[in-house]
Specification:
Strand content: 35-45%
Helix content: 10-25%
Radius of gyration: 13 Å
Number of strands: 9
Strand order of the largest sheet: 1-2-3-9-8-5
Order of helices and strands: EEEHEEEEEHHEH
Shape: globular
Number of helices: 4
Distance between the termini: 7 Å
């Protein structure tokens, strides 16, 4: 599977998509495939102030629990409340409806150091 070109990727399988003054964060298809069936997602609440490297969410599956991190500092301004009712959307649509949080980034410069889709896919062949 080819990862979308409109975002940046981390070695720990998060994607970050700039949208105006916000950065949307989610987990990659590779991460979902490794987790298998996602059964629960706990998101930090809106208003949470973050530094790069802070945890924004915890995703649980039948196999394991994984933390999800931000690469940019800022404040969570929106969480994907739909995941509380249906965390399985992470399995079916990790790059769309399965987004986790939106952050108003105080510094987007760290995005430049992350992988583009081609580099991420090359590092994580399916």
């Amino acid at each position: 599977m080819t990862s979308p070109n409109d975002r940046r990727y981390t070695a720990s399988h998060e994607w970050l998509k700039p949208e105006g003054d916000l950065v949307v964060i989610g987990i990659t298809r590779f991460a979902v495939d490794q987790l298998t069936d996602v059964t629960y997602a706990e998101l930090k609440p809106a208003g949470t102030k973050l530094q790069a490297g802070d945890i924004v969410a915890e995703v649980e599956s039948v196999k394991t629990t994984s933390d999800v991190y931000t690469s940019v500092p800022g404040e969570i301004v929106e969480v994907n409340g739909a995941l509380a009712d249906d965390p399985g959307v992470l399995n079916s649509d990790p790059y769309g409806a399965g987004w986790l949080v939106k952050i108003r980034a105080s510094d987007t410069a760290p995005l430049a150091a992350l992988m583009d889709a081609g580099a991420y896919d090359a590092a994580n062949p399916t």
